[in-house]
From TrEMBL:
CDD domains: RHOD. Residues 279-382 form the Rhodanese domain. InterPro entries: Rhodanese-like_dom, Rhodanese-like_dom_sf, Thiosulphate_STrfase_CS. Residues 1-22 form the signal peptide. This is Rhodanese-like domain-containing protein. PANTHER family: THIOSULFATE SULFURTRANSFERASE RDL2, MITOCHONDRIAL-RELATED, THIOSULFATE SULFURTRANSFERASE_RHODANESE-LIKE DOMAIN-CONTAINING PROTEIN 3. SUPFAM superfamilies: Periplasmic binding protein-like II (SSF53850), Rhodanese/Cell cycle control phosphatase (SSF52821). It comes from Ideonella lacteola. SMART domains: RHOD.
Length: 389
């Protein structure tokens, strides 16, 4: 009996990996703004071709619900994502690897009424966007955040389907701002040269569909999938995923709306080199991270004044939800530099705003924080315990 039980255990161990991908699943996530492209894809042909290639059943789904598809990237809901950049970016952060994208990189622009002078003028305005998790909304959040604004700063956000219609809404005064691909803007502007203007531009974004495959699939399966998507048969309606955007570009898309602004009214944003110069002149460096992080490593001479954060990582946040009572230990008459864990860390941003509100005379925000300090190869103090009071 023991021998038979052992044989059963071995059989289960051998079969278990096969079950994890026996019914391989894929989803084609179609932006409502790219529905025409989506209609050209043949789900059935893709299932048949991939099934024949792998010798296993393959199930291909399609979805226009970007929010639902984004949830699936976090839960590992599909083995393969054929999706726009923001979905692929999320998948790459949750156990998937990139095959490639179908189109060259693109750029998006924030377009506003001709009377607007800058992105700051968008505050309390109206914005026209596709659905919440569309690539256009990701770009809008990123460009607004970079200027110190949030979607919460706007009077209204209208979610619709067709981005180019947003340009018409802006030109007719039905909306104040919208986001479109630069290519669509340039085509529209030729016929409407004075109806609107560009207020901000995004970075480079992987274009078309990106293909991401689950890393824990067997190596030979991943290799076959990568080869197939690089040159899919015409019956599938898929274009080759032949473009190789940098992983950093996907990371940048994933971080849009979560990174801190690049400016802060009332404070001076400084670099690592400028921090050195200010310290030499008597400025105080304030480390707003937690105790463990400070004790592990910190800028020499930095004082530990933690910002206990519970509010949203957004330019419109509820300061009363946070605890920065330690600010009272600092002298508001001295030049003060706040920092934390880099551009995606909001503690020093919020701490700087708190100091400004309390009347600190010279507030400096070291946005790059410890990552920038270390990348500049500047000295670091390590393993120093915080003095208990």
């Amino acid at each position: 009996m023991k021998t038979l039980a052992g044989a059963v255990v071995c059989a289960v161990a051998v079969l278990a990996p096969m079950r994890s991908w026996a019914d391989l699943s894929a989803v084609v996530a179609i932006e409502p703004t790219a529905r025409k492209t989506g209609l050209m894809l043949s789900r059935y042909a893709t299932e048949a071709k991939l099934g024949k290639l792998l010798g296993q059943p393959v199930k291909v789904a399609t979805s226009e619900d970007m929010t639902d598809v984004m949830r699936a990237t976090r839960s590992g809901g599909y083995d393969v994502f054929i999706a726009p950049a923001q979905v692929a970016a999320s998948a790459l952060a949750h156990g998937y690897e990139l095959v490639g994208s179908t189109d060259p990189n693109e750029q998006y622009v924030l377009v506003g009424r001709a009377a607007l002078q800058s992105t700051a003028d968008v505050k309390q305005g109206r914005i026209y966007l596709p659905q919440q998790d569309s690539i256009y909304t990701y770009m809008a959040r990123g460009m607004l955040t970079a200027s110190g604004l949030s979607l919460r700063d706007l009077r209204s956000v209208e979610y619709a389907r067709y981005p180019v219609a947003g340009l018409t809404a802006v030109s007719l005064g039905l909306s104040d701002v919208t986001v479109v691909r630069r290519e669509d803007w340039e085509a529209w502007q030729r016929d409407n040269p004075t109806a609107a203007k560009i207020l901000a531009s995004s970075g480079s974004v992987p274009g078309g569909f990106s293909v991401a495959v689950k890393k824990d699939l067997p190596a030979d399966v991943r290799a076959k999938l990568a080869k197939w998507f690089a040159d899919p048969p015409g019956e599938s309606g898929l274009r080759p995923a032949a473009h190789q955007a940098a992983l950093t570009q996907y990371q940048a898309v994933a971080q849009l709306g979560t990174f801190t602004p690049t400016q802060l009214p009332g404070a001076t944003v400084v670099t690592a080199a400028q921090v050195q110069e200010l310290v030499a002149k008597g400025a105080v460096v304030v480390d707003t991270r937690n105790e463990r992080e400070y004790e592990s490593k910190h800028i020499p001479g930095a004082v530990f004044v933690p910002y206990h954060e519970k509010s949203l990582k957004d330019v419109v946040y509820e300061a009363s939800a946070d605890d920065f009572s330690a600010l009272s230990k600092l002298d508001p008459s001295k030049p003060t530099i706040f920092h934390c864990n880099g551009a995606e860390c909001w503690k020093s941003y919020k701490a700087s705003r708190a100091a400004i509100a309390k009347g600190f005379k010279q507030v400096y925000w070291f946005r790059g924080g410890m990552p920038e300090w270390e990348s500049a190869r500047l000295p670091v103090e390590r393993d120093v315990q915080v003095a208990k009071r």
